[in-house]
Specification:
Elements lengths: L6 E3 L29 E3 L3 E5 L5 H9 L16 H13 L3 E8 L5 E12 L6 E11 L8 H15 L5 E7 L3 H9 L3 E11 L9 E10 L3 H13 L3
Parallel strand pairs: 1-2, 6-7
Antiparallel strand pairs: 2-3, 3-4, 4-5, 5-6, 7-9, 8-9
Helix pairs in contact: 3-5
Length: 236
Amino acid sequence: MIMAHRLVDLHRPRQRSAHCRNQGIRHTDSVTFDLGSPTLQGRLVRLEPLDHRHAADLAVAATADRSSYGFTWVPNADEVPGYIAAQLERRDTGKLTPFAQVSVATGRAVGCTAYWEPRLWPDGERLSAIEVGFTWLGAAAQGTGINVEAKLLLFAYAFETWDVARIDLKTDARNARSRVAMEKLGLTFEGVLRNWSASWAPGEQGRLRDSAMFSVIASEWAAVRSTMEARLARYA
C-alpha cells in the first residue's frame, strides 16, 4: 500500500523485490488498484498529485504556444478547471493517478502526466503493469529536461517500488516527434494498433486514431534507466 503524498527522491538508493514474472497479466476493464498519491521529487521537476490549486499555472502553461499539441489532449485556459475535475474523477475510479509537473526552478506547474490503466497479476493483489500517459508540457518547459526526468521518476517508482513487470506508453501513430522522443529514451516500439483510441487531433472529435505502442519491461529497466540518466545529464 502506498502512503498518500509520500515524497520519493529520484536519487535515493534503488531497491527491488524479486517475484516470478512469468505469469500471465490479467487485462480487464474492471481492474482497480490503490495507486496512492505519491509526490516524486527530481532536480528539475517535482511530480505532485494534481489538484485545483494548479489550475492558474496550468492555464498559463497551456496557452503560451500550442503549436506542438496537434495530437495531444491539452486544455485551453478556460477548460483547465474542467480538465482537472475530469482527471480527479478518473483518479477516484482507481484507474488513474494524475500529476502536475512542477518546475523546481520556478515552483510553477508547467504540465501534467499520469499513471493509468493498472493491470494486476492473477492473484489480484499485486500490480503487474501500468501505463504512463495524459502527458503534456507547456512550450517553455519543452526541451529543458523536465520530460526526461519526469519519465525517469515515473518509471523508477513503478519498477522499483511497485515492482511492475511492464510499463506502456502510446501516442498517435502520426506523432513523429513523440515517437522519436520515446525511442531516444530507450523504449521499445511494439507496433501500431489501428483504430485503437480516441483522436485528439483538431477536427477529429469522435473519431478513432491509430496508436503507436511503446513499452519497457523489467529486464530492460536497468539499461533504459542508464539511457535516461545519460540524456538527463545533458541538462545539468
